[in-house]
Amino acid sequence: MKYLLFFILFIINYMECTSLPSTYNVIGPFSIGEHEEVYDTLESYGGIFNIPIGDNTTYPSELGKNSVVGWSVYNSTTPGSLQIDWSSTINWGFMDMPFDWAIYLWYSYAIGDFTATESSNYIVNCTNLRTFYIQSKSNPSEIQEFSGDFFAYGNGQQTIYLQQGQDYRVYFRMLSSTRVYGSAFSQFHCNLVPVQDDITFITTESLISDVVSGILASSYGSITLINSGLADIKSFNISLSDNSNGHRLFNLNPLIQNSTKVLAGQRFSIPFEIYLKYNNKVLECPFNLDIQVSILNDLGQEKQFYTQIPFNCTDFNNPYLFTFLDFDQTVQYAMLMSPLNECGLESNSCMIQVATHGFLGVTRDPSWFTNFNRQNNLWVVMPTGRTNCGYDWASSSRINVFYSIQAVATLLPGVPSQSKSLYKTDPSKILFIGHSMGGMGCWNLLVRQGDLAIGGACASGFPKLSMYISYELSQGFSYIDHALKSLLMISIEENNVDIISSNLVGLPLMARYGENDTVVNPYHSRRIVKMVSEQSHDENAVIVSEVPNENHWFDGMLSDSYMQTYYNNLMGNYSTYLPPIPKSITISTLNPSGTGSRANILILQLWTPFKLAKIKLTQVYNSNNQLIWYLETQNVRRFSITPEPVRQEFPEILVIDGKQEFVNQYFYPNAHFENKPFYARSNQKRWVVNEDNLWITYEKNPATYGPIRQIFEKNFKIVYGTVSNNTQTIAQQKQAGIYINNFWNNYGRGSVSILSDVEYLEQLSIQDTSCSENLILIGNSNENIITDKNLFRSDVIFNLDNSFTIGGPDSYLFSGAGVGIAFLMPNKCGENLILVVAGTDSLGLDNSLHAIPQRSGVITAPDFVVTGPDFRGKGYGGILSAGYWDNFYRLSDSNFYLAEITN
User: Fold this and answer.
1) Does domain 20-196 have CATH number 2.60.120?
2) pLDDT 10s digits, 177-190
3) Where does the signal sequence lie (predicted)?
4) Which of 66, 81, 239, 886 is an S-S bond match for 189, by CB 3.0 to 4.6 Å?
């Protein structure tokens, strides 16, 4: 009887809990392009918040019969969930004949109502959604926007305060993902849970290294939380819980200042190190690390919270997880397989094999890491790219790869202290392999960092994202001309393997794929094979393994006897020196920020940014048997010769566009070559030796090249303005900072300190970090003190009415309602970047905020972009201006677009 009463009370309590709707009015589907983040046809008819819901009105759509779609009612058995594929109304088989997978890309709105049963802060978390909104029905202008956990990583938690008895309307913007489902299917699932605690731990994001044969593989760990209270957290302290096993075994050292604020609604990761108290202690599972977090909030309240991280124990002969500090000082992990032999005993050290996973691949999942074998002389490193989808192994994912490799070489994770000399490792000799998205990553890493490669085996990869799923169905493209389209596409073009594939010439390469691959068609691999062969003038430049009767993945794809023979040959041939430089090779780049040296030539600066730069190298011996390098250049302003990697043969003389220099006197970074023609508009080149690096302070350099996404490739802080006379403006700017932090946390496992401009000034007075970090500044120079202090480095001027000019005070003026701008500028030292996000008003700031790229493949962010009031509706067609700064961060007429009418 007691249990029956308990059950009845539980059911009553459950029924009284606030529940998301299970009945939805759905409008759609509307076509949208690959990675087209901003576009909404309904804005042309008043916008989703203003049109009638559930009536008989129809709206034009390419996917609808008679060219229109209307409202439908859908019921779900689970509140907060819905699945749709539109197969009852759309013949997808007919549609995909001319358009292939790109036709499956659509969006729609699913709208439902619910009532809050208690006044509380709530955690809301939606998977497989990019965006959703919650509106107060009693005050319809009160609308809160949220970012969904699109790839279902498990870290999409956000907070909202709901009042008891109030009615709310939720708008779920459904978005299909061809890469996730391979079809037109889409779904979402949302939870809404009341929360009383000031912080809530996101335990799926907790990280600690494995225990390997009784020792901790590496010392780094982190926990992630969300400030689920109503007040900002003023400070916190992290420690090991008293009387726990962890407290008896370890000392804990936080890697972040305890005075760091965590704003209400902000997700935040706390990194730390742990050290054994007793060096000879052998660790045994099962046991946990019990952590206490003490906080002080803005209301002066002190509270304690507790979380646990379980340890996993394994053996040195098995794959294991190790942790490391990434480029932004967050703790990330990679999986590792130790060498079969003690290769550090050899004079050449151990080498690295790096394996990049496919789309939605979970590095720590056995379905991935059990596909590899331990190797003689090689560590097998399996990085995450930050997340399961990462950034298609570009940008932050690419940098994560090399930080994980460096961590293996310096930390030797899992190796006992007394044995580390046996595994001495050279991180500059890498065998790159990968599959699917990781196959593209494999090609991308090779084409950018060829001087680190002993070779590569790229399986089922593709040369560029826009070829895998076409961008041509993007709705916004219909509103713009080729001039703007090209500027936008250039922002992701540096990640295209084909355009810089000349860098692959001379590297030992294999392309492997299944003959019947229906996920990544063999055409993609064959395209790369053909391009490398053409530029090598060798029809056998790339080994091709086209496996009969196999599809996208098969057992042994990267590990069968055929592959093992290939790996063994590479290790045998290049254990001492890397593959030799070809007699002729062209080194290419679109962006020096992400391209390392090839053939010991490092391009530092382009003459015109974001246009293809090339250096053609031809090796010739003169009559004295001296090796001469003849270099011909295109669009190169500065380049250098690197002393590493060490080569068996190296030139004594350089001839650069006809000018002779002696190479051994002018190695990077002590010197570089600069093109200083007598006339700016001339292809008559005049190369001089530059033996100082002062230019870095004032000109574009690899650390500050752009485009906007480069802001996320270093440690950064967000600073919002507080000097506006409008309190709503200050609140919006603060919320914008939380919005950026949370999407960076979701897509990239990042974590950022968010400060007001006054707080940042106070911090600088204690320790000046302004030259060692990137900044995102929210608010213009009238609203943000830090923007005002740094604006001298840009070509943007803000006026007192929040209008602004680009190119000088009498140049291009942007004013009026709903105009926003996001632009890059260097910091005062020229070594890091600042991104300013501002608007003429609330709508303008909101539009510029949504131009910032949240994931790879987004093209709305060159060095600067000006958004008009139609940006939400027209997407690319709502852009007023965009472009790339010249080498002095000034407006470039050749890399600039202006529109004056967008509607």
Assistant:
1) yes
2) 989 988 999 999 99
3) 1-19
4) 81
